[in-house]
Design the sequence.
């Protein structure tokens, strides 16, 4: 007589093994882990390493003490330790991940019978335990000092403005696993492989967003909703915590209800709770309600049909494969992230570019104590509106022209920024002129030509040909004469661009600057 094998849910329904699933979850968490360590440094690495080692060691010691087969090779302890570490601050004292991992494995998992028998997510339970027991140690601290500061979500609750781009990329003050971009990449990978259920993760996000839109006081303002979605562990909770097989419902409808419950509770705690980062509590309540949901939302048995009813045959509807959807979403997210990085760094780049130009003006016109705008040049450049200067200098633009004066207010020279089209893009140089219109010096502020060829334009052997030139300069191959420039061998386009920029600057002096300010 064959004996039936009775076991607790979840039952084996797929060829994928527990170790394989745990390895995939660990792999999907690696992007967020790497970003967190790169942003926050070695202390973040120590928190991650100690949490994982403590979790694995706790499970091994418990199995050893209870004389049970070791279960550390299924990978679940690694996932628990890693999830706990990513939910901690980068400046967290190193004893905190050790205590949290021991609590998660021993109390929340092993004492209930091990993997598959815990009724709440061990990593989340450990984080809540740490928040209650070690509140000061769990406070998020900035990288630059050790004074506790509010997380971005806490800043929002206080009415402060937050940088959504930094929150999305994971560079704002927060937990180690705060990079929403990295978490979305890993979460969508798991969803595309059917390792996690989309009914849970997406219903969590939808429920949370809808609740905040209805009751947040700002309607469905995209900036407001995105700021809340990017903070407080919402994305990590939706994709990596709430989707835990053991603590989530079995049926699809039950999973949808479970996800919406977590999203609504998370929104409620976010708006009305005293703790800003309280999404963990919403998921734990959802874990506790999961058996109740399974009791009343029963999945339809396989091959079930009502008596007298036959199943209608129909063509299988067209469905887009999940990997295609996931890759599309990842590409879209990456595009948004790149746009955000550009927006975030645009002002800084412009400021650095301006400082580089000012430094180059000082280099080409060293006698000047101060630089002032030339009203005539300013009016002419506004008239051009970014267009090319003249018709004899190719694609050449005058970007700026300023007057250099000494301490007594006398004109000692002019500094111009001129751009011309080179082989690898714009060649932009600062051109210093004497009050009589002779070249003092040139200095490149933008040069992206071919290494070993066009880039030799920045060498002194080429730039030293320009001082003393005036009027119009010709480009020649071989030895140069009085008002000629010897071209770079194998870089005619670059040499032409530099000569055109020089001649355009000299012509601008003769036409606009000569004889005045």
Sequence:
């Amino acid at each position: 007589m064959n004996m039936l094998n009775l076991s607790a849910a979840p039952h084996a329904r797929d060829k994928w093994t527990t170790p394989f699933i745990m390895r995939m979850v660990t792999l999907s968490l690696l992007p967020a882990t790497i970003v967190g360590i790169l942003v926050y440094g070695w202390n973040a690495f120590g928190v991650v390493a100690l949490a994982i080692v403590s979790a694995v060691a706790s499970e091994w010691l418990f199995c050893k003490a209870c004389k049970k087969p070791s279960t550390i090779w299924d990978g679940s302890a690694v996932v628990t330790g890693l999830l706990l570490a990513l939910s901690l601050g980068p400046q967290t004292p190193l004893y905190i991940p050790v205590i949290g991992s021991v609590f998660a494995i021993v109390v929340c998992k092993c004492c209930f019978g091990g993997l598959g028998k815990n009724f709440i997510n061990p990593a989340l339970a450990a984080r809540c335990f740490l928040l209650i027991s070690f509140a000061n140690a769990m406070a998020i601290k900035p990288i630059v000092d050790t004074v506790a500061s509010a997380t971005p979500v806490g800043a929002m609750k206080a009415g402060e403005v937050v940088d959504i781009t930094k929150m999305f990329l994971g560079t704002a003050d927060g937990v180690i696993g705060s990079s929403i971009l990295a978490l979305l990449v890993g979460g969508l990978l798991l969803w595309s492989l059917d390792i996690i259920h989309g009914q849970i993760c997406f219903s969590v996000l939808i429920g949370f967003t809808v609740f905040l839109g209805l009751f947040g006081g700002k309607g469905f303002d995209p900036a407001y909703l995105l700021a809340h979605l990017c903070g407080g562990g919402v994305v990590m909770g939706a994709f990596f915590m709430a989707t835990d097989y053991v603590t989530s419902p079995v049926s699809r409808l039950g999973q949808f209800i479970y996800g919406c419950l977590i999203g609504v509770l998370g929104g409620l705690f976010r708006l009305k709770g005293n703790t800003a980062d309280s999404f963990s509590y919403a998921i734990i309540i959802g874990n506790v309600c999961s058996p109740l949901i399974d009791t009343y939302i029963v999945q339809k048995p396989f091959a079930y049909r009502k008596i007298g009813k036959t199943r209608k045959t129909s063509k299988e509807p067209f469905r887009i494969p999940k990997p295609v959807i996931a890759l599309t979403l990842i590409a879209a997210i990456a595009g948004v992230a790149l746009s955000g990085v550009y927006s975030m760094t645009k002002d800084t780049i412009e400021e650095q570019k301006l400082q580089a130009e000012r430094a180059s003006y000082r280099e080409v016109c060293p006698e000047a104590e101060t630089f002032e705008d030339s009203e005539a040049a300013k009016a002419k450049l506004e008239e051009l509106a970014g267009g090319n200067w003249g018709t004899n200098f190719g694609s050449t633009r005058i970007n700026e022209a300023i007057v250099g004066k000494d301490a007594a207010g006398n004109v000692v020279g002019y500094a111009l920024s001129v751009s011309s089209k080179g082989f690898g893009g714009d060649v932009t140089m600062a051109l210093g002129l004497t009050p009589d219109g002779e070249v003092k010096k040139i200095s490149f502020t933008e040069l992206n030509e071919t290494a070993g060829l066009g880039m030799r334009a920045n060498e002194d052997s080429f730039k030293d040909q320009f001082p003393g030139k005036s009027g119009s300069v010709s480009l020649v191959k071989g030895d140069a004469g009085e008002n000629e420039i010897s071209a770079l061998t194998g870089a005619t386009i670059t040499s032409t661009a530099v000569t055109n920029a020089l001649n355009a600057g000299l012509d601008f002096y003769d036409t606009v600057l000569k004889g005045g300010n």
